[in-house]
Amino acid sequence: MSYVTAICGVAFALCLVSPAAAQEYVELTGGFGPESHNVTAYAGGDIDGSSIATTCAGMVGETPQVTLSFTAYGGPLVISAYSEMDTSLVVQAPNGRWYCNDDTDGLNPRVNWNTAQSGTYRIHVGAVGDAAQGVPVVVAFME
Questions:
Q1: Domains in the chain, start-ordered, CATH in brackets?
Q2: 31 exposed, middle or buried (CB, 10 Å; 0-12, 13-18, 19+)?
Q3: Which one of 20, 51, 109, 126 has the minimum C-beta count within 10 Å?
């Protein structure tokens, strides 16, 4: 009987893991075309984005929801987030600088570089307001 109780307890604990803790890893090379490459992430976290950089908004997680490994070709890179709720983007570029955006396209954020760098982009999707915590967000990569 205690064996069954232990299994049920572990299963219940696994159900409590926040979807915001889930991470996506994307690997792209510049010139990937006019179509966007999309992944699903979940907005939110316990850290105020403005504590990372004063221009950042929303509550973000300690670890990025999406990590992009990008091989540049000298062209642009655009990272957007689309959701039914108000979200933000807090992105650490390969040079270590933070880039943030909130509400470029309605309530949807977008960060873009005219000449993107090769390297790792760490992407935090912020929840702006309590209602946005944990909502699914489509993170789109475009050129």
A1: 19-142 (2.60.120.380)
A2: exposed
A3: 51
Model confidence, pTM? 0.84
* pLDDT band at residue 87 under the 50/70/90 scheme: very high
Per-residue pLDDT band for 21 (boundaries 50, 70, 90) equals low
**Phi and psi angles of residue 2, each rounded to the nearest 5 degrees, phi first:** -65, -30
What 8-state DSSP symbol labels residue 66? E
Q: What is the pLDDT of residues 46-70, one digit of tens each?
A: 999 999 999 999 999 999 999 999 9
Angle value at C-alpha 63, between 141 and 14, nearest 5 degrees: 105
